[in-house]
Design a protein that fits this description.
The structure holds 3 protein chains of 3 kinds. Chain A is of the alpha+beta class. Helix content of chain A is about 25%, strand content about 20%. Chain A has a 6-stranded mixed beta sheet with strand order 12-13-14-11-5-15. Chain A has a 6-stranded antiparallel beta sheet with strand order 17-18-19-16-21-20. Chain A starts with 6 loop residues before the first helix and ends in a 15-residue tail after the last strand. The mean pLDDT of chain A is about 95. Chain B has a 4-stranded antiparallel beta sheet, with no helix packed on it. Chain B has a two-stranded antiparallel sheet with strand order 1-2. Chain B has a single domain, classed as Folate-binding superfamily (Folate-binding fold), CATH 3.30.2270. Chain B is α+β, with helices and mostly antiparallel strands. Chain B is built from 2 helices and 6 strands. In chain B, about 15% of the residues lie in helices and about 35% in strands. In chain B, strand 4 and strand 5 form a beta hairpin. By secondary structure, chain C is an alpha/beta fold. Chain C has 3 domains: about 140 residues, 2Fe-2S iron-sulphur cluster binding domain, sarcosine oxidase, alpha subunit, N-terminal domain (Ubiquitin-like (UB roll), Roll), CATH 3.10.20.440; about 120 residues, FAD/NAD(P)-binding domain (3-Layer(bba) Sandwich), CATH 3.50.50.60; about 55 residues. Chain C contains 9 helices and 18 strands. In chain C, a hairpin with a 2-residue loop joins strand 10 and strand 11. In chain C, helix 5 packs parallel to helix 6 and helix 7 packs parallel to helix 8. The radius of gyration of chain C is 23 Å and the shape is globular. Classes of the chains: A alpha+beta, B alpha+beta, C alpha/beta. Chains in contact: A-B, A-C, B-C. At the A-C interface, helix 1, strand 1, helix 2, helix 4 and helix 6 of A face strand 6, strand 8, helix 5, strand 10 and strand 13 of C.
Chain lengths: ~550, ~100, ~375
């Protein structure tokens, strides 16, 4: 691409470019190997640089002299644009549409730029060219997508129990790349009916959830406890083997980034649970701080998400179910307490059992190596048969946790929520010596200002009405549009356990507004009235998870 | 799409194996509580946005999972060097200007 | 319609063959080796579309990717493809084509009424006129979009499949004209892994329409030998019908290979197109050049064509796109077109050279070919 026109010169230049490029790529010595092709051609006299053929009339009066055929841009149009004050070639392009066509001005642009230069009284060099961008010529979307369509568009991740879920006719929900059972309809049951049945089963007897997709990071090293304590808002320095603790992780700006339970497996050995969607991000976050800021801390991270199948059994009968398949752990409430974990054998398979709870009920999360997943699942289903053990999906999980006011990071938070906003001051260690990630930001003027959006519960005045998630909240539904928006609904469900709808919302200064009636205006012009209530709708004292 | 040399793997790999992690050589204050809101805000939010030489951090996310630094020309996208955390760049904006 | 402009001299077409196709519903015939553009010209089609803004009738002006006017909808149904340039569409049996601009059709265009008000539609017209009141924008947009035309996207799922190939090479040569071909040969001989890509159906670039001789043989047969030589290298990958459409950072290039488009729109033979994602150590851009058109009053009327395109239609495709020609030039090179036109048995009415005293050897050579310096017009 060198402005060479004669055939002989093109051939000579091509040959030397080929040899030189090969040499620069590490091949050969740059010498030309083939004899120069012999060409007969007329020697050329110089061409005239003629960008606009003059007309007897002024350009603006002459018949159109087209520069860009596809978009009907003429020489007079370019001159007019200059008279209107445009100077930059990029502006002229956008104002006249020169080079906007599917041909991108392959023929016309050079003339157009030269005419522009002349109209501006400057050289073509000073005027410059517009930036050409790919594609050189139109390229089909099909080719860009290639075979990455349909089932191959994105990888799908399945747990070891996936086949069982399919056999039960589960409806699935995408959670990141994971396919998670959403609910398990029986027969022609509607989603709402299935979810109601599943919710009641958990609160009244026992349910089982495939929680394998939760992120799991194995953390080891002599400085593991110190490191983890710097990352979470609370302390892990005194967490003993066999114990678990719930933690919230902040970004350095003080905003909630992930949450989960972290268990002390042994001296210098911890297992961190993350949200399903946050697993990769949390791992990168841990690595970032260890590698760049605290390389002196001896601690190592391994993603073990896929290594484990997690079967969660939850409900008042959970202990009875577990007792039928696990003989080597003392399940008595005093011996295996809430927020403990134990090693044991479940249906013949070595397992780690965590007594933690996302439903507020007595819960055991049974972890076994992933390839025993279906075996352990079927053993639990069989053991639970007499209690009508009910498999449930993510929707029921969401409803049950919302009844308890447990947040989901990324649903009830959006990267602008502090622990205090979420009514979770209790999770922030006040006496930690090291300034954990995000701590300083909790004292920033913006973090402590009043009128921040705060997590509250909403109870609709008409309990049959379920607020749409994302609905805006106003204090006065009769005000003029645009209304003064005070917050929005983050989670909303019908609770069959409570017999009315429930919602979580963030409202400006919400913690001080308990009892106030607010309104959610809908797109169809209606407004739904709701009362601000505590975000904990069910078992506010948290007694059920500690059940004997 | 950039071709990036991972100083840990010692290979040129495609950009899609990496993720960008912002400006390099930002040191966390040792005593955050001793800082004013403005000083903490400077550390937290303010970043260079140079036209030309920029030292930045990359993460070999689907490779060795290590963070490293790169000196990149933000105008030409040329990567002039990559180096490990703890090392100093050989190329700097001042050096390049000379 | 018959092929009134067909010659039997096309170096890359077989004038004894017959390929049936339709254009705006009309049955036509072309020959093997034709593009849709060369076949339309052979059939005497002068108007192929209407312009975007004024709806002026437009004809074919170029012979490759630079073509601004001959924008076509190819095929029908699920596999239809909008906005292909007729100059780049290889003819195949049963090809269906239609102009994308022109409402209700290219020859009777209601929209051309906007042309009468040409002076009322200066640049920035859309910005100035359709901005207010904002409420009416949806109405304006509808009108503008209809006026803009430019093809219709298929509404059904794409029945074709596509794939991608990630490749690395030492030397990537973009363009397989004379410079690209010899560059690839030298690089290959030096032991480099070479990819050479060209958007045309066959390698050779400008030489496919050249009447020059190289090493004592016709340029086209010199190309054939060189391509065969390149293909004999195990370290060379040749990609015809492959457009290097983007040159991205760090020598990363996207190349779109059209594998089956020339066989018919629903040819069932693997992927229709392949995207090569190439990371090259070195890149040689041997893309050639476009002839710069001349900007003169009424330069858009159908029949005005690039000189190099006229020569290409005559020499490569065996089509003389018209009968009587006036050649307007600023350089020696275009005189070859007058020679080609004359050899095609058509009349060169005049040669207009913008230079005051053209004196190249080729300028004089026309004298013996039936048009003399007397018929040369001077603009000075």
């Amino acid at each position: 691409m060198a402005g060479t026109y004669s055939l002989a010169a093109c051939l000579a230049e091509g040959a030397s470019a080929g040899a030189e490029a090969a040499k620069l790529a590490g091949c050969g010595d740059g010498r030309i190997r083939f004899p120069e092709p012999q060409v007969e051609e007329y020697p050329e006299q110089p061409a005239q640089a003629l960008f606009l053929v003059p007309h007897t009339k002024a350009t603006s009066r002459a018949p159109s002299q087209f520069v860009d055929m596809q978009l009907d841009v003429s020489a007079s149009g370019i001159e007019l644009a200059v008279r209107e004050g445009f100077k930059s070639v990029e502006h002229i392009k956008r104002y006249t549409a020169m080079g906007f066509g599917t041909d991108q001005g392959k023929l016309g642009n050079i003339n157009g730029m030269a005419i522009l230069a002349s109209a501006l009284g400057q050289s073509i060099e000073q005027t410059g060219t517009t930036i050409f961008r790919p594609s050189y010529s139109p390229t089909t979307f099909g080719a860009i997508a290639g075979a990455d369509v349909g089932a191959l568009f994105d990888p799908e991740r399945y747990t070891a129990v996936q086949r069982w879920h399919q056999e039960q006719g589960a409806a699935f929900e995408d959670v990141g790349q994971w396919k998670r059972p959403w609910y398990f309809p029986r027969g022609v049951e509607s989603m709402q009916d299935a979810v109601s049945r599943e919710c009641l089963a958990v609160r009244n007897s026992v349910g089982i959830l495939d929680a394998s997709t939760l992120g799991k990071i194995d953390i080891q090293g002599p400085d593991a406890a110190e490191f983890i304590t710097r990352m979470y808002t609370n302390s892990y320095l005194k967490l003993a083997p066999g114990k678990c603790r719930y933690g919230v992780m902040l970004k350095e700006d003080g905003m909630i980034f992930d949450d989960g339970v972290c268990a002390c497996i042994g001296d210098n050995h911890y297992l961190m649970f993350t949200t399903t969607g946050g697993a990769a991000g949390v791992l990168a976050w841990l690595e970032l701080w260890q590698q760049t800021e605290w390389p002196d801390l001896k601690v190592y991270f391994t993603s073990v998400t896929d290594h484990w199948t997690t079967a969660t059994i939850t409900g008042p009968n959970a202990r009875k179910v577990l007792a039928k398949v696990c003989a080597d752990i003392d399940l008595a409430n005093d011996a295996f307490q809430f927020m403990d974990w134990r090693d044991g054998t479940v249906a013949g398979v070595a397992a780690r059992i965590f007594r933690i709870s996302f439903t507020g009920e007595l819960t055991y999360e049974i972890n076994v190596p992933a390839h025993y997943g279906r075996h352990i699942w079927e053993a639990l289903i069989a053991a639970g048969e007499e209690f009508d053990i009910t498999p449930y999906g993510t929707e029921t999980m969401h409803v049950l946790r919302a009844e308890k006011g447990f947040i989901i990071v990324g649903q009830d938070t959006d990267g602008s929520m502090t622990p205090a906003d979420m009514n979770m001051d209790w999770v922030v260690g006040k006496n930690k010596t090291f300034s954990f990630i995000g701590k300083r930001s909790l004292q920033r003027s913006d973090s402590v200002r009043e009128n921040r959006k705060q997590l509250v519960g909403l109870k609709t005045v008409d309990g049959t009405q379920v607020l749409p998630e994302g609905a805006q909240i106003v204090f006065d539904p009769e005000q003029k549009i645009p209304m003064s928006m005070q917050g929005h609904v983050t989670s909303s469900y019908f609770s069959s356990n409570l017999g009315h709808s429930i919602a979580l919302a963030v409202v400006k200064g919400g913690h001080g507004l308990l009892g106030k009636t607010v309104y959610c205006p809908l797109a169809d012009g209606r407004s739904i009235a709701a009362e601000i209530v505590s975000s904990v709708f069910y078992d506010p004292k948290g007694e059920r998870q500690n059940a004997e | 799409m950039l071709l990036i040399h991972c100083p840990h793997c010692r290979e040129d790999r495609e950009e899609e194996e990496y993720s960008y992690s912002g400006e390099a050589h930002i040191v966390r204050p040792l005593e955050p509580e001793a800082l004013s809101d403005q000083e903490w805000g400077d550390y937290l939010f303010f970043r260079k946005n140079p036209k030309g030489i920029h030292h930045e951090m990359w993460y070999h996310a689907v490779g060795c999972r290590r963070y490293f630094y790169a000196t990149r020309n933000t105008l030409s996208y040329e990567i002039l060097e990559t180096y490990k955390v703890g090392e100093q760049p050989q190329v700097s904006a001042q050096g390049a200007a000379q | 319609m018959s092929q009134i402009n067909r010659l039997n001299t096309g170096a890359r077409t077989d004038s004894t063959s017959r390929i049936n196709f339709t254009y705006n519903g009309k049955q036509m015939q072309g020959v093997a080796g034709d593009t849709l553009a060369s076949a339309l010209l052979a059939n005497g089609v002068n108007v192929v579309g209407r312009s975007f803004k004024y709806s002026r009738p437009r004809g074919i002006v170029g012979h490759g990717a630079e073509e601004p006017n001959a924008i076509m909808q190819i095929g029908s149904g699920a596999a239809t493809v909008p906005n292909l340039r007729a100059t780049q569409v290889e003819l195949y049996e049963g090809l269906e084509s239609a102009s994308v601009n022109g409402w209700p059709n290219v020859n009777f265009d209601l929209m051309s009424i906007t042309g009468w008000f040409g002076r009322m539609m200066p640049p920035g017209f859309y910005y100035k006129t359709f901005m207010y009141p904002a409420k009416l924008w949806m109405t304006y947009e509808h009108f503008i979009r209809k006026a803009a035309g430019l093809g219709s996207a298929p509404v059904q799922d794409d029945p074709d499949s596509y794939d991608k190939l990630n490749q690395h090479c030492d030397v990537l040569v973009v363009g397989a004209g004379p410079a690209g071909l010899v560059a690839a040969r030298e690089a290959a001989r030096a032991g480099a892994r070479v990819i050479i890509a060209d958007e045309q159906s066959e390698f050779g670039g400008s030489l496919l329409a050249s009447i020059n001789s190289i090493d004592g043989q016709a340029a086209t047969s010199w190309v054939d030998e060189l391509v065969a030589e390149l293909e004999s290298f195990s370290n060379v990958q040749t990609l015809p019908r492959s457009t290097a459409f983007g040159y991205y950072d760090h020598n990363f290039l996207g190349i779109l290979q059209r594998r089956t488009d020339h066989l018919g729109i629903s040819a069932d033979s693997g992927s229709r197109q392949r995207l090569h994602r190439v990371r090259a150590k070195r890149v040689i851009l041997a893309t050639g050049a476009f002839e710069r058109p001349l900007v003169f009053a009424q330069n858009d009327i159908p029949g005005v064509m690039q000189a190099s395109s006229v020569s290409t239609y005559i020499n490569r495709y065996g089509v003389a796109p018209g009968n009587r020609m006036i050649l307007f030039t600023t350089n020696d090179n275009a005189y070859q077109t007058a020679i080609d036109w004359h050899r095609a048995g058509r009349a060169v009415v005049a040669v207009v050279d913008s230079r005051s005293a053209p004196s190249g050897e080729i300028v004089g050579s026309g004298t013996g070919n039936g048009y003399s310096s007397n018929s040369r017009l001077r603009s000075d």
